[in-house]
Amino acid sequence: MAVIGLQGLRGGVGTTSIAAGLGWSLQQQGESVLVVGAAPDNLLRLLFNIGFAQSAGWAYALHEGLAWQSAAWRYTPRLDVLPYGQLNAMQSSELLARPEGVAHFLDALKTLKQSGRYRWILMDIPAGFSAFALETLAAVDSRIVVATPDANCHARLHQQPLAQDAYLLVNGLRVASHLQDDIYQLWLQSQRSLVPVILHSDEAMAESMAAKQPVGEYSPASLVAEELMTLAGWCLLNLAEPQP
């Protein structure tokens, strides 16, 4: 069992789509996977054909006093999804501001890990430094920080260096962009924990959310789907816990 936290260096770098795509790629390789939405925007569910009208999710369940286990969805025999749930901004803030609210979520995560039901738990964690995000990151086994090779992310890496146990994943690289290539070359020299897999800019990634599918299901022959399969292989080699 390995719990992997995926978090964007900032918002809008594609973390949610990557979490869904990586989960799909891992189950395609025979792994059992649970993808958990820990971001209050509750967008993860849209990549697994869960409709707008569905409010179910672990945060919604905790807010309503329901069992969080009832919020999970079976997507394939090896891939389950646990959405955040649909709460308004005030409800979500109140839930995450209560120590017991965060504690219930972390206890649920611990229970899932101890169950041994899944080989992988992928956490889609919101960007930023909220107490909830930091406490969730502290509970994962490994973290992958997603960044686009642009001036914004480059500045952020200088202002806030990565944690020692974090890996940096480049997403959205445009081959024709000289600026992005220059920044990526700088990262190759300066970032010690750069994931050796690049996710290039690919329209299939944007289309997959419109189709409500992980990109590997929507467009398995696309460049980014193939790269996510390579990323899944890298995770198996570098982040998986040994089988008992």
Give the topology, please:
Elements: E1 2-8, H1 15-28, E2 33-37, H2 58-64, E3 73-76, E4 79-82, H3 89-97, H4 99-115, E5 120-125, H5 131-138, E6 142-147, H6 151-159, E7 166-173, H7 178-190, E8 194-200, H8 203-210, H9 215-218, H10 223-238
Parallel strand pairs: 1-5, 1-6, 2-4, 2-5, 6-7, 7-8
Antiparallel strand pairs: 3-4
Question: What can you see in these coordinates?
Answer:
The model has no long low-confidence stretch (mean pLDDT 94). This protein starts with a strand and ends in a 6-residue tail after the last helix. The chain has an eight-stranded mixed sheet, sandwiched between helices. It has helices at residues 15-28, 58-64, 89-97, 99-115, 131-138, 151-159, 178-190, 203-210, 215-218, 223-238; strands at residues 2-8, 33-37, 73-76, 79-82, 120-125, 142-147, 166-173, 194-200. The protein has 244 residues and is α/β, with parallel strands linked by helices. Helix 6 links the parallel strand 6 (142-147) and strand 7 (166-173).
Low-confidence stretches: none
Structural class: alpha/beta
From the N-terminal CA to the C-terminal CA, the straight-line distance is: 10 Å
Radius of gyration: 17 Å
What is the typical, i.e. mean, pLDDT? 94
Give the overall form: globular
Oligomer: single chain
SS element count, helices: 10
> How do the strands line up in the largest sheet?
3-4-2-5-1-6-7-8
Order of helices and strands: EHEHEEHHEHEHEHEHHH
Total E-strand runs: 8
Q: What is the strand content?
A: 15-25%
Percent helix, as a range, is: 40-55%
Q: Describe the largest sheet.
A: 8 strands, mixed
